[in-house]
Amino acid sequence: MSMRQMTDIAAALIPDFDLTAHNTLALRARSRFGVMIDQPTLLPALFDHAAAQNLPVRVLGGGSNVVLAPEYDGITALLTLPGRKIIDQTIQGTLIEAAAGETWHDFVLWTVDQGLGGLENLALIPGTVGAAPVQNIGAYGAELADIFHSLSAYDRATGATLTFGKDECAFGYRDSIFKRHPNRYVVLAVRFALTATWTPNLGFAGLSDLAGSKEISPRTVMDRVIELRTSKLPDWRETPNAGSFFQNPIVTTTEAGPVLDDFPSAPCYPQPDGRAKLSAGWLIEKSGLKGYRLGPAGISERHALVLVNHGGAQQADIAALAGHIKQTVQTRFGIALHEEPIFL
Ligand SMILES: Cc1cc2nc3c(=O)[nH]c(=O)nc-3n(C[C@H](O)[C@H](O)[C@H](O)COP(=O)(O)OP(=O)(O)OC[C@H]3O[C@@H](n4cnc5c(N)ncnc54)[C@H](O)[C@@H]3O)c2cc1C
Description:
There is one protein chain. By secondary structure, the chain is of the alpha+beta class. It contains nine helices and 20 strands. The chain has helices at residues 3-12, 42-53, 104-113, 166-169, 177-180, 218-232, 253-262, 280-286, 315-333; strands spanning 14-18, 30-37, 57-60, 66-67, 71-79, 84-89, 93-99, 138-139, 142-143, 148-155, 161-165, 185-195, 241-244, 250-251, 268-270, 276-278, 293-294, 297-299, 306-309, 342-343. Bound molecules: flavin-adenine dinucleotide. Keywords: Cell cycle, Cell division, Cell shape, Cell wall biogenesis/degradation, Cytoplasm, FAD, Flavoprotein, NADP, Oxidoreductase, Peptidoglycan synthesis.
């Protein structure tokens, strides 16, 4: 590590960094230092500097899946690495790459503009490309793992840049190796393999009527996804939120029993392992909590799975509300809910 790079990173650190505008819940949050990482070569210098100063480092993308503490006594590194490109195009398909700091939705739009299909069901998910593999983002019957090829990540433990194939990422439902080892890897760039023969994924409610359409294309599917999401979810710019706050619980048929006994038509999706996925939003709504408020935090009137900041909320307010919801659903249905966003 050159002296020059160490000096550059020290100069780039912004003291008492305000993160209120860097998290979609708009929680009031500050970090002892903030720094924009717009090139991978800054990372070794950053971690060396932090180690020398005995400061912890955490990574943030768009702040759309986090519940930030009011104070962080360390360095918050905002990943802003730019760039997207087609790496290879053959008659079998297209390999594309985007850097971690790219906005996910802009990247989806770009693929559709290139006439490429595969990412359209994942349109309008907030945040960055780099965070997308962390929880294997998913929506409208698709998930990132479906079209994932590989990624490059900086290993904080060794300083090496590694390539992860699909198996090494250990993707699961809103899960990956990166979520399980939160302080180990910094995702730098993600690659996607899109097949030349595009097959629309229309299994999800709200998309199936497109199946008969002669005009069907990645763009028409994407436009429908955008329309559906806009009509269902509150806009985080107007009503600060972190999207779905709880994962849909995957339970045994015995655990699902009390729910289905009372409500035989409750949403319940069989899983390959014999278990069943229930709808967390439905459970919260049926527990009578839609629109519920606890101090400055609340549950959206529009969607029971979305927790919102009505103004001035802090991490503790969101945590208190989440605790109340979990306890209420547990008491009513005997089902445990687990938070999706990460408390940082
Ligand atoms: C309105 C709304 C709707 C949403 N809808 C969906 C949805 O449909 N499906 C879905 O799956 N999610 C959804 N989300 C959640 C969120 O958009 C995704 O999880 C997104 O991928 C988070 O990206 P981010 O850049 O904001 O990550 P952040 O919130 O900044 O970070 C999330 C986690 O990833 C880590 N991280 C961030 N960047 C990197 C990196 N480069 N390398 C390593 N770790 C990193 C952070 O440390 C943190 O632990 C929604 C959120 C909102 C606000």
